Amino acid sequence: MFLKFKDEVSSILSNALAKAGLEADDLALAESPHADISSSVAFKLAPKYKRSPKEICEAIYRNVRIPPDTYVDRVEMAGPYLNFFVSRAYLNETILNILLEREDFGSLGKKGKVILEHTSANPDGPLHIGHIRNSVIGDTLSRVLARAGYDVETQYYINDMGRQIAVVVWGLMNFRFDKTKKTDHAIAEVYINANKTLVDEKEHSPEVDAIMKKYEMGDPETVKNFKDAIDIAMQGIKETLTCMNIHHDTFIWESQFVRSGDVDRIIARIKKLDRTKVKDGALMVDLKDMGIEKPLVIQRSDGTSLYTTRDLAYHEWKVRRSDRMIDVLGADHKLISSQLKAVLRILGIPEPEIVIFEFVSLPEGSMSTRRGVFISADELLDQVEKAAYEEVNRRRPETDEEFKKKVAAFVSIGAVRYDIVRVSPEKATTFDWKEALDFEKQGAPFIQYAHARACSILKNAQDEGIVYEKYDPNILVEEQEIMLIKKLAQFGNAIDNTARELKPNIIAIYAREVADAFNQFYRYVPVLAAEPEFRASRLELVECSRIVLANALDTLGIIAPESM
Fold first, then answer.
1. Is 93 inside any structural domain?
2. Each residue's pLDDT tens digit, 188-240
């Protein structure tokens, strides 16, 4: 709805500019507290035409013509700004469209295949909170892109050729695997013990090097050992992701690009470039002219490939299977991702869109799988669920144990997911479970509770035998009603902005704003206690709120509960 309104504003403004003899590349449209959409285009045109912004704004305003049957009700000039306001038809059709489209409301009809890679943690131990920021960002973006209409395939790129996995394989040959533990935690224990031994007893290091070499050469026994070790670790990792309501469509092993010959072919193409050099036997690409001081090493002196080499082959493979590639990577990948994109550009291969996220920390301190000092995602989720249970028990002491545990489970997952995506990816954040579990305003429970409240109102109406099929949206004229309808109408716009900018915090903030608008409406406008002529329409507005809240929560990968 809002996107159509915005398009109509663009058309009206463009026509007014043309009639005024002005040209603008950017209409400078933005949401505003003073209007539904505001334009500051006069400021942009002032230097070009050497006239004051207010004078230019007046010239545009004199030429504004609003055609009939649009969502634009009126345009007002406020100094150098042009303010556009929605019509009653816009408000009424928002209600109608939500009730008709229901779970499809907010879908945009975009086309194209998207391959989105996220998580891709090394299978040498359990996920920690840094990994799950990657997972939640990636999963939320995949849900947003799917709602936007794209055919989305999520991929987990398994690093099965790195030294870490060779250490795990060597460790499984020399240390006990604790079958009583969750598999990824047991693998981590082996990996930590193996690393400690390799540091203390350096004579074993060549054994790991030999394992790596045999795996890259395709030795059958070594290949089986690697597969078994990775499958064990991935079993535990997948369990954690499932608990977080996260799934991947495909698991891609980097070794497949070595076995298929794709890596050899990409190396051969790179060798033909006039920017390659050999240093200490290693092949590397000079990228200084592209603003990158550090060269990218493509091949070691012993002829083996590197992770980055295989990543180049992986991206070329993805190009053949998608219209759009998206990678979610931690801040420690900034350099390598810029090198990757630069080499792909040189080779004439389309580049991926890369979402770089800063790290999330905990008050407990740093996390390192190698040193064995980390807080796993499993431990974090357990801690948050216990805190959620205490909060539910405090709020709903009269409910049975099963209800409390059920609510604590979905509240805790929602709290973690929401707290991760509410902050823009490029900003570092500290996970605070007290804020995450805030039922009042900050966290997912606030949004979930708004949905549960809407469900409760509708159930009470049903229990009282209130029929509300016949409604008239024209009577929804209270300030809180208008503000709520306008906020509901912006769902598609939030999806569109998130899909374009790849910032899931946009949809997270929108969901919270809808919950806030619904609560303001419920606080000041009677629904069940309203006069009969108002009751039906207000109940339909409650139903519309429930639908949009459910859709927004689903897009965030968070359960929309009927009761809490």
1. no
2. 999 999 999 998 888 898 999 899 889 988 899 999 999 999 999 999 999 99
pLDDT digits (tens, 9 = 90+) for 145-174: 999 999 999 999 999 988 899 999 999 999
Domain co-membership, 205 together with 349:
yes
Q: What's the rounded Cα separation, in Å, for the pair 411 and 22?
A: 54
Residue 369 domain-assigned? no
Q: Give the up-direction half-sphere exposure of residue 174: CA atoms within 13 A in the CB hemisphere.
A: 17
Name the strands in the sheet holding 276-279, side by side, starting at the edge strand that comes first in the sequence: 276-279, 282-285, 296-299
Tokens found for residue 544: 């519309």
pLDDT over threshold 90, residue 437: no
Token pair for 12: 């009206």
For the chain, what is the domain count?
A: 3
Residue 370, domain member (yes or no): no
15 and 48 share one domain: yes
- CATH number for the domain that contains residue 357: 3.40.50.620
| Residue 366: per-residue pLDDT | 43
Same domain, 354 and 387: no
CATH value at residue 498 = 1.10.730.10
- Cα(166)–Cα(180) distance, integer angstroms: 23
pLDDT tens, residue by residue, 236-264:
999 999 999 999 999 999 999 999 999 99
Q: Measured in whole angstroms, how far is the alpha carbon of residue 456 from the centre of its chain? A: 30
d(CA 115, CA 314): 12
d(CA 184, CA 544) in angstroms, rounded, equals 43
Mean pLDDT of 169-194: 95
Joined tokens for residue 205: 């290091």
The answer to whether 425 and 333 have CB atoms below 8 angstroms apart is no
Q: Is residue 105 part of a domain?
A: no
Reported as a single tens digit per residue, the pLDDT across 289-306 is 999 999 999 998 888 788
Beta bridge partners of 362: 365
Name the band, by pLDDT with cuts 50, 70 and 90, for residue 364. low
Domain containing 210: what range?
118-361
Q: Is 295 left (phi over 0), alpha (psi -120 to 50) or beta?
A: beta
Same domain, 271 and 345: yes
Give the CATH number of the domain where residue 39 resides. Answer: 3.30.1360.70
Last residue of one domain, picked from the residues 299, 330, 361:
361
391 with 356, same domain? no
Determine the Cα–Cα distance for residues 408 and 418; give it in Å rounded to an integer: 15
* Cα gap 124→213, rounded to integer Å: 19
pTM of this structure: 0.93
DSSP 162: S
Same domain, 206 and 129: yes
Strand partners, 354: 327
